[in-house]
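Morning run. Coffee first, then this:
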Amino acid sequence: MLPPVSLHYIIESIWMVKNHSEKSVEGIILPDGKIDLFLFLDNGSNFEIFIGGICNEPIVKHPFPKSTMFAVSFYPTAAEFIFKRSFATSVNEKINVASGFMGFSRGDMNDFEAFYKKTCHTVQLLMLAEQIDSRKIKLFDLISSSKGQIKVGALATELGWSSREINRYFKKWFGISLKNYIDIIKFCNSLKDIKTGNFYPELDYSDQSHFIRAVKKFSGSKPTVLRKNDNDRFIQLTTLYVD
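And here it is:
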């Protein structure tokens, strides 16, 4: 679900995944340029809250049959203004946090709609006290709206913010370069084409070989394997809506 318009600059989506199967099948989380907050509950009532920073390679999620996961996908600015911590040393890693983090607990998993409303209210309150550098909001908006097709130099010119300073910001808070992040967003935007069986690049990849290399770099698999998505193991492809 999309957040209210007032939170579009900080939250990308609020969503859930429910595994009804008793099979122990691993899932794979693909890089998408977001910082994710997860609430997880398995069939044995084991509950945990964890955060996933920006990843630049596929992350294997161990199999948990009969489980439910609620998640909030934040834009990277949340590192500074919501989580108030750097993720530079946590690239591709899971960060466990205690129950009660941001006011969330086991009881919040009883009702997804109530979780959605609580999330929006909590984030709105957290953001009231923040003074945000508008360049940072515009930075991620430009990358997102261009589907990762904007060049580093063009971003710097548009923002009046040098590429060196932007890269310093990325390294400090996220542990990756600006160029790496742009490439992740471009890959993420190609998933809809892959899901529909279009293996010819619609974005500004130089040719199909370049496209396939980029897909393999960030997913570990060829586009045809992603398209097949056996056992729904590629989580973003499973939840991706194609109109």
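The radius of gyration is 18 Å. Good start to the day.
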